Structure to design on (67 residues):
């Protein structure tokens, strides 16, 4: 019975990580849009690149959850 609970804990931990990554990605996207609006292009492109990287990481972790 204990072996059944272990995958549930692992998948719950992955869900928490995905939620944190998506929240951080939304923050970075907000910063990127604000940087584009204020003509600070280096900051805008850097935050946009990190946001895309986090999106890819979230997609990989989400794919791990699906059987």
């Amino acid at each position: 019975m204990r072996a059944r609970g272990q995958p549930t804990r692992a998948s719950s931990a992955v869900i928490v990580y995905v939620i944190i990554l998506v929240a951080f990605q939304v923050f970075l996207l907000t910063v990127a849009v604000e940087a584009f609006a204020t003509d600070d292009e280096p900051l805008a492109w850097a935050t946009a690149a990190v946001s895309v990287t986090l999106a890819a990481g979230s997609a990989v972790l989400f794919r791990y959850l699906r059987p």
Q: What stands out?
A: The CA atoms of residues 25 and 62 lie 15 Å apart.
